[in-house]
Amino acid sequence: MRTPRIRVGIDVGGTFTDAVAVDATTLELLGQVKVPTSHHHEDGVAHGIVEALDRLLEQTGRAPADVAFLAHGTTQATNALLEGDVATVGLIGIGSGPSAVFTRRLASFGKLELAPGKRLPLAYAHVADPDDTAAVRRAVEQVKDEGAQVLVASQPFSVDRPEGERAVLDAARPYGLPMTAAHEITSLYGLHKRTRTAVVNAAILPRMLATADLVDRSITKAGVTAPLMVMRCDGGVMALDEMRRRPLLTVLSGPAAGVAGALMRERVSEGVFLETGGTSTDISVVRRGKVAVRHATVLGRTSYLNALDVRTVGVGGGSMVRIGRSGEGRVTGVGPRSAHIAGLPYACFASPGQLRDATVDTVRPLDGDPADYAVIDAAGGRFAITVTCAANALGRVPEGDFARCDPETARAAIAPLAAVLGTDVTTAATRILDAGVAQVRTVVDAMIRDYRLDKDTAVLVGGGGGAASVTPHLARTSGMEGRIARHNEVISPIGVALALVREQVERIVPGASQEQILAVRAEAERAVVAQGAAADGVEVEVTVDPQTSTVRAVATGATELRTQDRSHRADDTERLRAAAVSLKTDPAAVHVLAGTAAHTVYGTHVRRRLRQTRQPVRIVDMDGVVRHHAADARVESTTVAGAPEVLARLVGESTSYGDGGVRAPALRLLLGSRIADLSGVLDPQPLLALARSELRTRAADEPVVAVLEVRS
Q1: Of the candidates 508, 517, 623, the residue with the CA atom closest to the CA atom of residue 564
Q2: Reduced 3-state DSSP string for 378-395
Q3: Quick one: pLDDT at residue 405?
Q4: What is the model's pLDDT at position 268?
Q5: Cα–Cα separations (whole angstroms), residue 310 to 234, 313, 360, 465, 475
Q6: DSSP letter string over 74-131?
């Protein structure tokens, strides 16, 4: 019998490199290892990646040939920017007349602050005519003399007319420097922001190229033939060659790996993901089965980098408790300093003997900090009182969890503080969690509002080694459903192992026609297929923003068609129950409205005023997971052959007209194993054209289910 192949995910952190092996069929975790990140090795972090892979294969008894997919996430690009460890960029501005005024202003990017006292190293030169090869080469030699290690060419309106930037790069090619054109990094208008994004990308390009080459050679030498992928900051992965072109896409990819793990492994459809470490909690949103992404702020300014919308709170499992001055008898806060920063062990992980004769004192973890952080001085030395201590004392940390300790020891650790506060251990521990979780809840509530999540259906999912110190208490105090992700301590490398190939194409196209919208869609689809995604499984979400004239296509696909083990699939009763729970009604009031082999559509009726009713709908997959929520939807079944006519009628009947213009319904099509999300298009004709493009390769008698939500 053939050994099942594995998917390997490696997460390179600042201190440790974590690696996991996941069964490519069942997606179950088979093994995990942790090695120190090799920052100071002659091969850099590449050495740690290969070491982690070797140990993982040994632990799981697999050979390099068994690896079907290998991806890694790295903080290297982020750290390079934070530490100011970047290359000098030679920026060549192009233009004559009025255009020259705008491009010469780009020299100001040399004032961008990377770190305190460190500015972006930039050399600027100007050429009036990009076809003047001699002038271009003089400009290249000028910036090289000033130390340039990488080149960027930028010209106004290069999104529409890229020939000038290409001509400059062609003329500069003999100099052998890494090069990029601004229009290659982003195709959005805005000379200043487009060029700034390209310059920051170029600043980390040489360092990332060196690492990419080392990792590539090392993995090939190890005998792995699977394509090497790299984690992006928007929750997907990209091919190594794509990373070589746009390394900036790896910035901020650390939090993206965790939410990708929650999305794929925990199969979250609607909710908030909280990745809690020792010092902080990263908070992100999954809405309608997709991660929430926005243009990121890099070096204090907005960019055209599409990254996970992640918001960080300085509360983690190791956050220390702060108490009022003598006589106040209250918990005044938690963090931002942690036991790790203070160099102290957690009190709850001490032995009972070490906690003998304990007294409470207050300290300054670092010079300049307030002296109100509580510690225990006991027989075994000095210990920090942390959020993890409180969670264990209240029994919130489940058996087998990374942060689990003996609850009685945790209670003994909290007892001296409780005495100082004039209360019992349970109350003291609750006050600690209340103080910490309050900070997290403020951000969670804001993100729920920003993304209009339904608090009745959204779920809180905790990841990271400190998940149990935050998520269970937040769920209890907020009334939301909450759970800790399986194998939460390695949720990030799991996310890397399970992530899909992703590409996003954006174009500004005023009054975009059907053909132009379809062309953007096709470009995104081709991009992920070129990076190894199986063509039959690619999904493309298209959004057309009429206010900014932006056409955006996000394509995702797996590097292989993954067929999961069906032994754990939910039966009809389990799927009905999942829909009823989500709809918050009795299963007897829930009806099957339609379905395909992969999804079932359930609905119920809710009476409105004036004898009107609405039909809330839930789409549930074969695992019993709710994949889509709709407060009021129309559902109709047809076939691929009949779909064009049926969809034209449905869209025509459901399109609204008003002062805000024409608004087609939010349309989703259930096709085969997929939910094709076409809700980002407001114009009826492009919407129907996109629907036809989804149907074009399907058999005429294949079932199709349309789910439409009318926009007000």
Answers
A1: 623
A2: ECCEEEECEHHHHHHHCC
A3: 92
A4: 78
A5: 10, 10, 36, 18, 19
A6: ESHHHHHHHHT--PPEEEEEE--THHHHHHHGGGGGGG-EEETTEE--EEEEEES-TT
> What H or E segment, with its residue span, contains residue 685?
helix 684-695
Q: Which of 333, 351, 441, 344 lies closest to 387 in space, CA to CA? A: 333
Give me the helix-helix angle, 191-203 and 205-221, nearest 10°: 50
Report the distance separating Cα 518 and Cα 425, nearest Å.
Answer: 63
Helix, strand, or coil here: 13? coil
pLDDT score recorded for residue 608:
66
- Residue 698: C-alpha distances to residues 189, 260, 536, 695 (Å): 37, 29, 11, 5
CA–CA gap between residue 154 and residue 307 (Å, rounded):
23
Cα dist. 678→29, 540, 640, 657 in Å?
Answer: 34, 9, 16, 19
Instruction: Read off the amino acid at residue 349.
Output: F
Identify the sign of the CA torsion 109, 113, 114, 119.
positive
- Say what the alpha-carbon torsion angle 431, 436, 438, 444 is, to the nearest 10 degrees: -150
Say if strands 459-463 and 481-484 run parallel, antiparallel, or are unpaired: parallel
Task: Report which secondary-structure segment, H or E, holds 531.
Answer: none
- Please give the helix or strand (H or E) that residue 634 lies within, else none: strand 634-639
pTM: 0.80
Contacts 24+ apart (CB under 8 A), 25-28: 25/562, 25/563, 25/564, 25/565, 26/564, 26/565, 27/264, 27/265, 27/498, 27/562, 27/564
The pLDDT value given to residue 623? 81
pLDDT of residue 1: 40
- What gap in Å lies between CA 552 and CA 548, rounded to an integer? 11
Tokens representing 601? 């559509």
Residue 482, strand partner residues? 460
Cβ atoms of 211 and 44 closer than 8 Å: yes
Write the CA distances from 263 to 32, 68, 435, 503, integer angstroms. Answer: 20, 21, 29, 17
- Dihedral of alpha carbons 14, 263, 433, 413, sign: negative
Residue 274 DSSP symbol: E
| Helices 471-478/425-450 angle, 10° precision | 80
**Close Cβ partners of 499 (under 8 Å, ≥ 6 residues apart):** 9, 71, 229, 231, 235, 236, 237, 257, 260, 264
**Which residue type is seen at 195?**
T
Gap between the Cα atoms of 47 and 387, Å rounded: 35
pLDDT value of position 325: 64
pLDDT at residue 660, rounded to an integer: 67
User: Distance (Å, rounded) from C-alpha 503 to C-alpha 530?
Assistant: 11
Which residues does 110 contact at the CB level (< 8 Å), separation at least 6? Answer: 119, 120, 121, 122, 124
Do residues 229 and 70 touch, judged by C-beta distance below 8 A? yes
CB 161 within 8 A of CB 94: no
Residue with tokens 């003994």: 412
CB 12 within 8 A of CB 72: yes
Phi, psi of 187 (to 5 degrees): -105, 30
Sites in the chain below the pLDDT cut of 70: 1-4, 14, 39, 299, 325-329, 560-568, 608-611, 660
Bridge partners (DSSP) listed for residue 412: none
Q: How far apart, in Å, are the Cα atoms of 104 and each of 138, 192, 199, 493, 579?
A: 17, 11, 14, 44, 59
353-356, long-range: CB within 8 Å, 24+ apart, which pairs?
353/379, 353/380, 354/378, 354/379, 354/380, 354/381, 354/383, 355/379, 355/380, 355/383, 355/409, 355/412, 355/413, 356/380
Place of tokens 């196209």: 509
Residues 400-422 as b or e (16 or more Cβ within 10 Å = b): ebbbbbebebbbbbbbbbbebbe
Rounded to 10 deg, the angle between the 205-221 and 76-83 helix axes is 150
Give pLDDT, residue 567: 46
